[in-house]
Specification:
heterodimer; A: mainly alpha; Alkaline Phosphatase, subunit A; 4 domains; 8-stranded mixed beta sheet; 39 helices; 10 strands; B: 219 residues; 70% helix; Phosphatidylinositol glycan anchor biosynthesis class F (chain B); transmembrane (chain B); GPI-anchor biosynthesis (chain B); endoplasmic reticulum (chain B)
């Protein structure tokens, strides 16, 4: 099958989007969630089951403890307490663990072993995934049900001292708090003193029900000097004395209250042998969990070894201990030793409450929950429990009752364990199979694209896709068979849920057919290339053009950018990479212009002189003006070069334009500081948006809109010119209506509306211009000869998009739009047209500038910088589809505008008929290289400390960017098709 | 071209490298608390001065270019002044380029300027010594196939490698290692220095290696 390279590239990108979607679905597993939202208030607790006569105990059991103190020590590893270090440095805790009234456990934390998700796990009992972060995009506050929320609803007073993360997660939940930031890692005394200084006062007061202390010092020591440092010992002793102080105070208080108090000592995650955390090694995952209370009294000689439990069990246990409903999303099970001392009926009641909550969660998340062994056990134990209650109500205190009771108890505990396990395997694991399937598809597409580069960029811009080559049909079926076998094996043996296995057979089969077909195509293309390579080597007439410095820069830049994605700092500061590359590109272009204009020919000694692309590209640019001029005058009469045609000011514009562009980029760069390290620096954007500088902002916005109009109107037909002018006026009116800019005649008007009418007014013009453009394009297709009409149509579409962007951009970002159009105009007039770059180079330059403008707009690889307000422009309420589309366009306006300019520019140039397909192919290739490499990198870095904070958001951005690229490629191909039908 | 020429080239280059090494050690004899990273600006001045001095001395002593025929005093003085102006101009234009690349405009201006000075020392000063304030000659040397002697060839290589070194030196700045040498412009100046030294070392070797293939028009 013969395909144009544009169409081919579009198909490839479409398949790639599919692969990425499967990958993303595997990488971000859907969390286990209760459908009942936490806001909906408390539903009545499950009544005690009873066979026959109904039970009289339907209310929630009363609390077991009056006061709870949680001491959370960051990065407390289990052997710091239970090992030799604990014996040496924490004598009091060791005494409590070994002989005192306490229960100790080793609680296992699930990766990512980072503080914030771990706090969530401790307090909600659920396993937080990245999707949670995306879901509550702008509010870091925890939306799910948690022990803290329940305690607050129940009217308990909670006091918190320690890591600020808690205050952010639970705003307004604490009656009193003092957050310390964990920003200064090198400080390990002050952070803890800030917590301890409150202790005496608070313990004496006793007007609280729950006290939470989060100590950061140990974690900081670990980061500085590792787990074997002598500092660790000091810190542990300090913690031991804190614990002793709290414990003695609680004990002395206990005489006044009827109920005992509970002291919980736990760690959020461990510490690896190097002192860091985040991954899933034993040292990072195992944390101690000690529950201390006089209720846990034991006889001498009763040795309790720490049992292994899950960290998520803490939430359920705390809820029971405080007499609260168990958080709805909790997957943990009650730590049974805590209730062991209670009467049998209460014990059964607690266990029943816990199993009911877990089975509800299971019902809502697993379609075939009835077959789950845990659910069956639950049903059985509930029946037994009912029998027991009947017996209990009939007669009390009997041997039979006790024996039956302990049997029910065992049954419940088994059910809890199974339920908890099957729920927690639903999340917290990467769905490796889906990820692999996605990666394979994406990598196959990339290989195909790379292999077909020589053919696709050939003058004909067509390539043979051997879809139906019979020689490989055997291979095709073999691969399908193998893949199906793998699919069956993986899906039947997997313990955890897998998205790809959950797909219907038809869909999964479709993906497998696709993957094997791609493999066959790759194999046949590869053989073609090898055979073809042999034949072409025989006739060496093949004209190989020499690689210019620009090509080298493009290749090195792309490779460097792709490699830099493996380092978290470079992902955070990706804008720096693009600014650096674009600057270097400008210098290389300036070198090229100098060489062309002063020397004309490449074979003669060039004037612009530098072989490298670095900082130097333009060193002599300013020094050499006169000399080069002289040199040229020397040669002027001898060698007439193309540059001779251009004279006077045009020549100087050509020479100056790279420098103008560089200056523009520098200005834009200081408009929005983005990234992480330098994001706090003052920038023009903040200066402009502060309320004191409203007048300046208004002037700037007006000038920018004017520049936009002047630059855009020259290519438009008169109708759309008028529409554009009115539209841009509407943009200003909209911004004035919502109060971000002001009119000169109404400098301090206070009436601020949502600007619905103004925005919709602009939308009408946007649609009108786009419609005119499409109409022109269609007309040009009918009247085959009308080439000019098509160019006008494309420019109109471009200007429609510009108008939309002008509406969506915040006013301080309007200069970005103006400069983008200015740079496009300069590049078109003075660089691309005179220097006659080929389509591939122009495409890559457009792509680079598009990326740079993405960051000039103030975007970054952090989800928080997405400007959601763009989704509300002209809308009364939140309507999902338009809001998402508008936000996506607003965010990716830079790349999209540069891509649409690319289409216009290449169509307006008549030099080569295949330029558009070449460009489409290059665009698809240059966009898919980073995304394919990135998913491989992310897969290998999935236990990295920053996987959730840095790499995952970038992954989402990359996925979205690929989707946009697919849309751009479809547009390209459509334009290409119109050209084909013309010719 | 003779082997003695290459030997002379090698010795002069070794002297240049030696001057850089000296600039690291000598100031610590006179100044307290001198170190490259902490008192970076001092080191930049010292290093720039040393390299310029060595270049001038070598220019006077070796004189690879025996082209100056008229040697009146006034001619010499104008030549020297011209050289100074060229040097200053190159410093300022480098400074502008650094700012365009994203160096802060107002804060750290002295640091940026000293970086421009040291880069000019590594690139413009040898050009001035070898070719004089003669832009035509510069253009000839830095174009393809325009080299006429091993001196010019090595000049080309050291200049380019200094630029590339400075360019590469900017790469580690965004990394979050929080090392003292990541501060602007230390990594870039170090990169330029290493690039210069690498160019000094490599160019004689490369010329020696390719001495059969290299043919110069005027030799």
């Amino acid at each position: 099958m013969r395909l144009g390279s544009g169409t081919f590239a579009t198909c490839c990108v479409a398949i790639e989007v599919l692969g990425i979607a499967v990958f993303l679905r595997g990488f971000f597993p859907a969390p286990v969630r209760s459908s009942a939202r936490a806001e909906h208030g408390a539903e009545p607790p499950a009544p005690e089951p009873s066979a026959g006569a109904s039970s009289n105990w339907t209310t929630l059991p009363s609390p077991l403890f009056s006061k709870v103190v949680i001491v959370l020590i960051d990065a407390l590893r289990d052997d710091f307490v239970f090992g030799s270090k604990g014996v040496k440095f924490m004598p009091y805790t060791t005494y409590l663990v070994e002989k005192g009234a306490s229960h100790s456990f080793v609680a296992e934390a699930k990766p990512p072993t980072v503080t914030m998700p771990r706090i969530k796990a401790l307090m909600t009992g659920s396993l937080p995934g990245f999707v949670d972060v995306v879901r509550n995009l702008n509010s870091p506050a925890l939306l799910e049900d948690s022990v803290i929320r329940q305690a607050k609803t129940a009217g308990k007073r909670i006091i918190f001292y320690g890591d600020e993360t808690w205050v952010k997660l639970f705003p307004k939940h604490f009656a009193e708090y003092d957050g310390t930031t964990s920003f200064f890692v090198s400080d390990y005394t002050e952070v803890d003193n800030n917590v301890t200084r409150h202790l005496d006062k608070v313990l004496k007061r006793g007007d609280w029900d729950m006290l939470i202390l989060h100590y950061l010092g140990l974690d900081h020591i670990g980061h500085i000097s590792g787990p074997n440092s002598p500092l660790i010992g000091h810190k542990l002793s300090e913690m031991d004395s804190v614990l002793m102080k709290i414990h003695t105070s609680l004990q002395s208080k206990e005489r006044e209250t009827p109920l005992p108090n509970l002291l919980v000592l736990c760690g959020d995650h461990g510490m690896s042998e190097t002192g860091s955390h985040g991954a899933s090694s034993m040292e990072e995952v195992n944390t101690p969990l000690i529950l201390i209370s006089s209720a846990f009294e034991r006889k001498p000689g009763d040795i309790r070894h720490p049992k292994h439990v899950q960290q998520t069990d803490v939430a359920a246990t705390l809820a029971i201990a405080l007499g609260l409903p168990i958080p709805k999303d909790s997957v943990g099970s009650l730590l049974f030793p805590v209730v062991e001392g209670r009467p049998m009926r209460e014990q059964l009641r607690f266990l029943h409450l816990n199993t009911v909550q877990l089975s509800k969660l299971l019902q809502e998340n697993v379609p075939s929950y009835e077959k789950d062994p845990g659910f069956e056990q639950f049903k059985m134990s509930e029946r037994l429990h009912g029998n027991w209650i009947r017996l209990y109500l009939e007669e009390k205190h009997s041997e039979v009752l006790f024996n039956l009771g302990s049997k029910v108890l065992r049954q419940y505990l088994a059910a809890l364990k199974t339920l908890s396990l099957s729920l927690s395997t639903q999340v917290a694991q990467y769905d490796m199979y889906s990820m692999m399937v996605g990666t394979v598809v994406v990598l196959e597409v990339l290989t195909l694209l790379l292999l077909s580069v020589p053919q696709a960029l050939h003058r004909k811009a067509e390539l043979e896709v051997p879809l139906s080559s019979p020689g490989f049909s055997l291979l095709f079926y073999l691969v399908i068979l193998v893949l199906s076998a793998v699919h069956v094996i993986v899906c039947t043996s997997a313990e955890s849920s897998c998205y790809f296995c959950g797909l219907s057979w038809l869909a999964a089969g479709g993906v497998m057919v696709l993957a094997s077909a791609l493999l066959c195509v790759i194999v046949s293309v590869l053989t073609n290339v090898l055979v073809g390579g042999n034949t072409s080597r025989k006739n060496p007439v093949h004209p190989s053009s020499r690689w210019s410095e620009l090509d080298l820069l493009i290749l090195l830049g792309t490779a460097g950018h792709v490699l830099s994605l493996g380092a978290s700092s470079f992902v955070e500061e990706e804008h720096q990479t693009w600014y650096f590359l674009v600057n270097t590109l400008c210098l290389a272009l300036s070198q090229e212009t100098y060489r062309n204009y002063f020397l004309g020919d490449d074979s003669e000694p060039p004037c612009g002189l530098h072989v490298e692309q670095g900082l130097d590209g333009a060193t002599p640019a300013w020094q050499d003006g006169s000399a080069c001029d002289a040199l040229e005058r020397d040669k002027g009469h001898r060698s007439p070069s193309p540059s001779q045609v251009l004279r006077g000011h045009k020549k100087w514009m050509v020479l100056a334009s790279p420098w103008l562009i560089l200056a523009c980029c520098r200005l834009l760069r200081s408009l929005n500081q983005t990234g992480v390290q330098w994001a706090h620096r003052p920038d023009l954007g903040h200066w402009l948006t502060s309320s004191d500088h409203k007048a300046e902002l208004s002037v700037l916005a007006a000038i920018s809109l004017l520049v936009v109009f002047v630059l855009v109107q020259r290519g438009c037909s008169s109708v759309s010119k008028a529409a554009l002018a009115l539209g841009l006026l509407g943009v200003y009116c909209y911004r004035a209506a919502i109060g971000s800019v002001q009119f000169p005649w109404r400098p301090d008007s206070q009436d601020i509306s949502k600007g619905i009418i103004e925005a919709r007014f602009v939308y009408i013009f946007v649609l009108g211009i786009l419609f005119t453009g499409t109409k022109d394009l269609l007309k040009s297709q009918v009247i085959a000869a009308d080439f000019k009409l098509k160019t006008v149509g494309l420019w109109e579409i471009h200007s429609g998009l510009v108008l939309l962007a002008a509406l969506l951009f915040r006013p301080h970002n309007l200069p970005v739009l103006a400069f983008s159009l200015l740079i496009q105009t300069l590049m078109t007039k003075f660089i691309w047209k005179p220097l006659r770059h080929d389509a591939a180079e122009i495409t890559v330059m457009h792509y680079w500038f598009g990326q740079a403008f993405f960051y000039f707009q103030g975007n970054s690889n952090n989800i928080a910088t997405v400007d959601i307000s763009a989704g509300f422009v002209g809308l009364d309420t939140y309507v999902e589809i338009p809001a998402v589309l508008l936000t996506a366009f607003g965010t990716y306006a830079g790349p999209v505008l540069w891509a649409s300019h690319l289409v216009y520019f290449l169509s307006s140039e008549t030099r080569s008929s295949s330029a558009l397909s070449h460009a489409c192919f290059c665009y698809a290739l240059i966009c898919s290289i980073p995304v394919s490499t990135y998913i491989v990198l992310v897969t290998s870095l999935r236990y990295h400390l920053f996987i959730w904070s840095v790499f995952s958001p970038k992954l989402l951005y990359e996925g979205m960017h690929l989707l946009i690229t697919a849309a751009v490629c479809v547009f390209f191909t459509a334009m290409d098709q119109t050209r084909l039908t013309q010719s | 071209m003779k082997d003695t020429d290459i030997k002379r080239l090698l010795y002069t280059h070794l002297l240049c490298i030696f001057s850089i090494i000296l600039s690291v050690f000598i100031p610590s004899l006179f100044l307290e608390n001198f170190s490259i990273l902490e008192t970076h600006l001092t080191w930049l001045c010292v290093c720039s001065g040393f390299v310029t001095a060595v270049n001038l001395v070598l220019y006077l002593a070796v004189k690879p270019n025996t082209s100056s025929k008229r040697s009146s005093l006034s001619h010499k003085v104008t030549r020297f002044l011209k050289c100074c102006i060229y040097f200053l101009m190159s410093c300022f234009s480098f400074h502008v380029i650094f700012v365009l690349y994203g160096a802060p405009l107002i804060e750290l201006a002295l640091e940026t300027f000293l970086f421009a000075v040291i880069l000019s020392t590594f690139t413009t000063v040898p050009c001035l010594c070898l070719l004089g304030p003669n832009l035509k000659a510069w253009l000839r040397v830095f174009s393809r196939n325009g080299v006429t002697s091993i001196w010019e060839n090595s000049l080309q290589m050291t200049t380019i490698s200094s630029f590339v070194g400075a360019w590469l030196g900017a790469l580690p700045i965004p990394l979050d290692w929080e090392r003292p040498w990541q501060v602007w412009p230390i990594s870039c100046t170090l990169g330029a220095t290493f690039g210069y030294v690498a160019g000094l070392v490599v160019s004689p070797l490369w010329i020696y290696w390719n001495r059969k293939q290299l043919t110069y028009k005027n030799n």
